[in-house]
Design a protein that fits this description.
By secondary structure, the protein is α/β, with parallel strands linked by helices. It contains 4 helices and 9 strands; from the N terminus they run E-H-E-H-E-E-E-H-E-E-E-E-H. The structure holds guanosine-5'-monophosphate and magnesium ion (MG) (2 copies). Keywords: Cytoplasm, Glycosyltransferase, Magnesium, Metal-binding, Nucleotide-binding, Purine salvage, Transferase.
Length: 183
C-alpha cells in the first residue's frame, strides 16, 4: 500500500468532513443543553474516540473535564467477546460525577455495555453514552445510548479515528474499505 494513495483504498465515502463536523456540533449543542447547570466528565474510549472527543468538546462553551480509558475485548479475530480488560483506567474518581462516555462506534455493543456497568459501579451521579456511529443490525445487547451521530449498515468503516490495522484513523472523513485492502 502506498501511503500517498489512501483514498484509493476506500470504495466510498460515507460521511464527509463537513457532514461529520456539522453532526458533531449538533450533538455538542444537545449535550450542552441537557447538562446545563451541571458539570460533566467526558470519558473518551481510546483510541477510536480521539477525533470525536476533540471535536465534540471544542464545539461546547461549557466547562467540561476530560479523561480517557483504554479497553480491549478478548475474542477471536475481529469479533468482540464481551470479556473486557482495562488497559488504561481513568485518573478521575467518579463519585457523584455526571459521566458521558464518548465512543467512535457501537457494533455488538458488548464492549460498551461492560464499560457502562463498570463505570456505574464507581458511584457516579449518572452515566450516559455518546457515539458517533452505531450499527443497529449488529446489536447483541440492549444498550441505552442517548446520543448517536449516525446509524450505519453492518459494514466495516474506517476514518475519523476508526482504524483497520491501526491505519486510516487520521482521515477526516469516514468511508468503507475496498476489498483489495483485506487481501
Ligand atoms: P463492540 O463491542 O460494540 O462489538 O465493539 C466495538 C469496537 O469494535 C469499536 O470500538 C471498534 O474499535 C471496533 N469496530 C466495530 N465496528 C467497526 C468498524 O466498522 N470499523 C472499525 N474500524 N472498527 C470497528
Ligand atoms: Mg471504540
Ligand atoms: Mg480498531
Amino acid at each position: 500500500m502506498e501511503a500517498s494513495h489512501v483514498e484509493s483504498d476506500l470504495t466510498n465515502i460515507l460521511y464527509t468532513k463537513e457532514e461529520i463536523q456539522a453532526r458533531v456540533a449538533e450533538l455538542a449543542a444537545e449535550i450542552e443543553k441537557d447538562y446545563e447547570g451541571r458539570d460533566v466528565l467526558v470519558v473518551g474510549v481510546l483510541k477510536g474516540a480521539v477525533m470525536i472527543m476533540a471535536d465534540l468538546v471544542r464545539a461546547m462553551n461549557k466547562h467540561v473535564s476530560m479523561d480517557w480509558m483504554a479497553v480491549s475485548s478478548y475474542g477471536s479475530g475481529t469479533k468482540s467477546s464481551g470479556v473486557v480488560r482495562i488497559l488504561k483506567d481513568l485518573d478521575t474518581d467518579l463519585m457523584g460525577k455526571h459521566v458521558l462516555i464518548v465512543e467512535d462506534i457501537i457494533d455488538s455493543g458488548l464492549t460498551l455495555s461492560w464499560l457502562k456497568t463498570n463505570l456505574e459501579s464507581r458511584g457516579p451521579a449518572s452515566v450516559e453514552i455518546c457515539t458517533l456511529l452505531r450499527k443497529p443490525d449488529a446489536a447483541k445487547v440492549q444498550i441505552d445510548v442517548k446520543y448517536v451521530g449516525y446509524e450505519i449498515p453492518t459494514e466495516f468503516v474506517v476514518g475519523y479515528g476508526l482504524d483497520y490495522d491501526e491505519k486510516y484513523r487520521n482521515l477526516d472523513f469516514i468511508g468503507t474499505l475496498a476489498p483489495h485492502v483485506y487481501s
